């Protein structure tokens, strides 16, 4: 993997972590149950993507 590719993966990991935090905050702050579930689902999807990217980085 090239340095440029490593930098790209690192950037994506940082962005995914930020999105996860935003989704968690939205779920925590939402009084609407449907919206809360949507935020939680999105956080989980981004967490899975984060772990996939991390796995690529570790290989």
Helix content: over 70%
- Based on secondary structure, the structural category is mainly alpha
**Tertiary shape:** elongated
Quaternary state reads single chain
Protein name: Spore coat protein
Organism: Ruthenibacterium intestinale
Notable characteristics:
single chain, 59 residues, mainly alpha, 2 helices, Spore coat protein
Could you explain the architecture of this structure?
The protein has 59 residues and is mainly α. The chain has one domain. The chain contains 2 helices and no strands. α1 (3-29) runs antiparallel to α2 (33-58). It is elongated. The termini are close together.
List the helices and strands and how they pair.
Elements (H helix, E strand, L loop, with lengths): L2 H27 L3 H26 L1
Helix pairs in contact: 1-2
Briefly, what is this?
This protein has one domain. It has two helices and no strands.
